[in-house]
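Handout, page 2. Input:
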Amino acid sequence: MGNYNGCYKWSHCVICNRRTTTHLPDGTCVCKTCIKEDKNLEKQKKNNINKNEEEVVLVFGDLHIPYHREGAIEFLSAVKDKYKPNKVICVGDELDNHSMSFHDTDPDCLGAGDELEKAIDIIKELYKIFPDVDLVDSNHGSMVFRKAKFGGIPLKYIRSMKEIIEAPKGWNWHKDYTYKMNNGQDLFVVHGLRKNTRQLAEQYGCCVVQGHYHEDSSIQYSSSPRQLIWGCSSGCLVDDSSLAMEYNKSNLKRPILSCVIIINGIAQIIPMVIKDGTWIGKV
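Output:
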């Protein structure tokens, strides 16, 4: 241990997540497991860029614009101002596309063209707040592509989401998305695969965050001899009183308004607190 400035402590390798006592002063692991698996020191350092700096990831979704909760965009702006995220991810359903739904639509809602135009006007506010966002495909957000497939229209005929909603260059869509956090762990982001996020995290072997389930805003941890991981549901930011959300009226559980902040690999729920029907104006 003398070659490593006498650093000797029990900890966990930030690369292989195994318990080890061999670290450099900056915490980088040079344990036998990593060496055996041919993870040399330079590769370890590369994989842990900025691990000593605070990393803040903001995850939001399920706004269902234009049927989003009043004050939701201002709430996200306040979250940004308070936590100053250096990475922003959307779990999908950024738009509702109610008028194109495969299910029954309300005749008193906006028509498809008017709904899209209104949604574009609103989401442009988000572009100003968050010029760079990674988004995942979702049942509502990707409705136009689902409709095209159902109607037998090749995707080559369809414009990209970026073109359709006039999104900035920094907005990019993915089927699902994996992000390497600064603690060395992967964060798997998907719109919604299964209700139990802990089981989903165990299935993928990494931390997971998803949306889709409006009434679920939670974090569940799972521990093994190798690692501690968590699964998170981000809640939503919908207007539950809108006609587009009428289908949910029979559900005893109500939507939970929230987003997620992940600081150095640790997730926390940020609720959008409502009083007398209005957001309180602070986080």
